[in-house]
């Protein structure tokens, strides 16, 4: 375990959570594991950031929660994207890509 | 947006399950994490330790999650309220003082506001209320009057284009002759259009039809519409009453409808029980009331077309009025004025109510200042607490919020108590109020009032809490921690300056109220010391309508018989009858022609016209200055005579002996058709305050009843004992004379007298009460600041004493400070009062606001000296009354009694 730690830019966590939920409903642990996996163990989301973010997104209506049973038969709170959450994800994703491309360009030429 | 709200509400109100879910979720995460460590080869214990390490502080995570729920603010508020209540409970003395003080401010404010709200802010109970206007016909030269003649009304209606409808009305007395006892009823004579104009349809039957107004079409039986109450009481809610014929007085009427339960029009203290059409006034050809352009006796209400501004309507009606003046030079020139109906109803109440509202506002401000002072005093004791909180990380904003919450909590508690107090006093207010206030019965608690008093309490809480809260939250940490042992320092000094400023403003406000109250008291004393020109004690009065079956010619004889029986009542020393009793707001004005001075009708002087039986002046204690009283020989066969009052004698016959001179009043003809006769003046009586204690005496003319019959009379009986004790005997005797003649409005002359000053009394009592409250609170304020200052300077005073200061010097020092505050406060108050009391001008009699300074000096030594009687502005609540006037009216007033006073 361990690995390199990267501080996420403001607002990025929300985007990552939405993206992680784009495919299927997932509980909190599952979300953090998925992000960890996809980012090749770089982005390790701490509980202290993850859950407040989930609750905030739920309040905004972008994700909704439902209690279900996890793979190993534990009761777990599953989050899934709502319609407006999906729209939000698209908007944020394209904004992020534009930003990343622009920043990349600037860094490439300087 | 809505899901957000639902989410927050759930977080707030289903707190336990939300918390439990959060716990479960976080525990699951923790277990997953531990599992992962076990899978990577750690022992379970080691895995648990690592997982805990990695998760960080669980409590912090939970706090962050709670932040995400977005209900922090409200929770903080709950916390503050809980804490605030705890703090208050720990200081019950302080809390009780503050809450009681607040209740004393909020209670009266609520009570007065509820009255203002009911009378001035609520719309009239008609669907068309906002477009209803009153059209007043006033004498162009003087602005007096208010009632219109029927021909004028018809011309206004026919020639105008801005109104959807226009209706005339007047009140009238009726006697219902039914199966049971004959019953006196207050009714109204109205245009057929009235109900549709008000937007109200009868609950039963139908409204008046246009042809109901036409006497030719009614076949001798006029239409009548009953009030719901009358229908219930007298007709047993029988719906077959529609179409039935009932007898009112000596005439048959056909019932065409029953109005809905709550319907009232005109809105007045005595409920209207039935409505009939103007057809009753149209009989008698050229002598009919409706045929005379000079007979001004009708109120006129109109409905503006939608979108028509009142100014446009005014311009149009004014043009019509001036055209009518040109067309009819024989009638005194008149102009027409339009006012919104609501304003016409509450017009005379407006100023007193606003003055009282301003007064309670002042009291409320003083209360706020007092409580702010209390809070400031306490805040000193809380420096340390605040400093400790700040040291523990409470933000300044948070501290301010907490203090404000405390003061708002205080405000609301005080408001609750105040509301109870206010409701109790509303009852008292209503009882104290002059009787002629429309719609007052509906004053009471409703959601609106509750909301308003909540708002007042809340704002008061913020208002008195703001200064202390800002002050406390500004304390510098180290300063207060250092200073707390001593209790003095820069913060303390600033503190006491703020408190002194609050006290000065309290004193100033109290002075304004005190002076206002002083003016009203003085004015009221003037008013009650006015000589009314008669002796109101021990006189019973009642009214009697000409009974059914009595022909016009026999009515005076019947009335004389009644007088004879009344004089013979045991306990009665004398009795008589008169058409218009003083202070009942029931006057008739007539034009006067003086013999040898031919004047065209339109420019003749006018006088109050009255008719009396012999012995009237003696019975009510009016002085006969010269000549003789009427005798039973002054009848329709003898010389027409008249008795005038001193004002008329002086004005029309300056420096001459009026006895034997002749005048011709324009009404009062008991001699059959033709012009009213010239009458010989046989007596002069002293001036009587006929319409209003505050008004100058008007010229008055009395004709003998036998020479000028009236249909409804006031009977007066002077008694040796309590006049109320003979009521039953009197009623019994009159019924024995004619079973269809019920007596009504049985009132002592004292009561009429008291009623006529009820308005000024109401204003005076209330304003004095508020002023007393204000002075008490201001005194408490001064006391509080002084004692605080002394406590604060104990060290200094002790030091001074140790250094040899005399006790007297110290006393001077302390008292000087108090005196300074008081003097500054009084000074500011005086300036304010001079600026503000001119609003009182219209409520004052015999004093002017400018007499203020004199009054201050004078009030030190109570004096009996009464000032010159300055022009009186018509007195207070419900005091204005204007009489219908009938210059040139040729009709004998049998069968149509006049109670058309403007004061509704």
Instruction: Give the count of structural domains of chain A.
Output: 1
Q: Please state the second-level CATH architecture of chain A.
A: Orthogonal Bundle
> What is the number of helices of chain B?
25
Averaged pLDDT of chain A, please?
A: 85
Provide an overview of this structure.
The complex is a heterodimer of chains A (110) and B (904). Chain A has one domain (12-109): Orthogonal Bundle (Arc Repressor Mutant, subunit A), CATH 1.10.10.10. Chain A contains four helices and three strands; from the N terminus they run H-E-H-H-E-E-H. Chain A has helices at 12-22, 28-38, 47-60, 83-109, and strands at residues 26-27, 63-69, 75-81. Chain B has a six-stranded mixed beta barrel with strand order 3-4-9-6-8-7. Residues 484-490 and 858-904 of chain B have low confidence and may be disordered. In chain B, strand 7 and strand 8 (251-258) form a beta hairpin. Chain B is α+β, with helices and mostly antiparallel strands and 904 residues long. At the A-B interface, helix 2, helix 3 and strand 3 of A face helix 1, helix 2 and helix 4 of B.
Short description:
The complex is a heterodimer of chains A (110) and B (904). Chain A is of the alpha+beta class and 110 residues long.
Which features would summarize this protein structure in a list?
heterodimer; A: 110 residues; alpha+beta; Arc Repressor Mutant, subunit A; three-stranded antiparallel sheet; globular; B: alpha+beta; 4 domains; six-stranded mixed barrel; 25 helices; 15% strand; disordered C terminus
